[in-house]
Design brief:
Layout: H1 12-17, E1 23-26, H2 30-42, E2 46-50, H3 57-69, E3 74-77, H4 79-82
Length: 87
């Protein structure tokens, strides 16, 4: 696969188990986000997601804490605020 190729799957468990899949990009609804991010972090994946990280305060605190204790990187995007055409 070349650098410009992309892959996708509907089998989240298989993607988490595949060491070639290093990054988990979340595009789920806010209500699902915390659980999906925590699963990806537990699987050792780096995560990138849109904001907000969770829909309730307890998950907003717990999800980044999971990433802090794991040996993975994580980030949340604020791109919706600065997307082209918004300003």
């Amino acid at each position: 696969m070349n650098a410009l190729s992309s892959r996708w799957t509907l089998d989240l468990d298989a993607a988490h188990a595949d060491p070639a899949d290093e990054i988990f990009f979340d595009a789920a609804s806010t209500q699902l986000r915390a659980g999906l991010l925590q699963r990806a972090i537990a699987a050792g994946k780096h995560v990138y997601c849109e904001k907000p990280v969770a829909d309730v305060a307890v998950n907003s605190r717990e999800t980044p804490r999971c990433g802090f204790h794991a040996a993975t990187g994580s980030g949340a995007s604020c791109a919706a605020l600065t997307a082209a055409g918004v300003w």
